[in-house]
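Project standup — Tuesday

K.O.: blocked on the structure for the chain from last sprint. Re-posting the sequence here as requested.
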Amino acid sequence: MNRLVMMVLKNTFKIPAAYGKLRHYAKHTDEYPEEEKYRHIQYVLDLAIRAGNVDVQVYGKENIPQEDGFLMYGNHQGLFDILAIVRHCDRPMSAVFKKELKDIILIREIAACTHAFAMDRENVRQSMEVIQNVTKEVLKGRNYLIFPEGTRSKMGNEMLPFHHGSFKCAVKAKCPILPIAVIDSFRVLDGKGSAPISMQLHYLPVIPYEEYAGMKTGEIADMVQQRIAEAIKAHTA
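H.V.: unblocked you, prediction finished:
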């Protein structure tokens, strides 16, 4: 059975109420506390992950900053990445995602609840506006996830080069950077069948602003990618 289909079928009796509540939050997002909306999103994602027979092995949660206003940068293997990260990051967070996903059910509602930004990768001006908006939100105390490869890697646990421009947000906001190593996430939705499967999330030690102050965005991108690459290599050997 297809894993996505199984996620839906196993939650047949829970979906209407859970999704209905999520839609309500999305339509009236400014009327509810951030924490309340985020916990419900995590509940919905937990239903899906459990029903999909996915074991998300999480390491380094102690590295997640306890003060808001930080940026997360992770390697990108597919749609399941962000679902797993949101489910296992206890600090309310949002994300930058490609515009092609903005009308997909569930993602659409989560984006509305968390003030996420859809980026048009073919439109340089719009992409720069997203970078500016994310910077403003981080300075206000929000936390954002960015996939600096710009698109998913189709090479398993190998990464594409990180785009330097993705790190302009961090430089302008002068905020902590939390690197995230995603391992085997591509197997969840790319593989056939619905047998139990596992993937790994590694929240790596935070890079404080003082460590990258004065560096060019290209140098920051290379540093973050190297640390993620080292974590992937260490845990896939």
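K.O.: great, moving the ticket to review. The radius of gyration is 17 Å. The mean pLDDT is 93.
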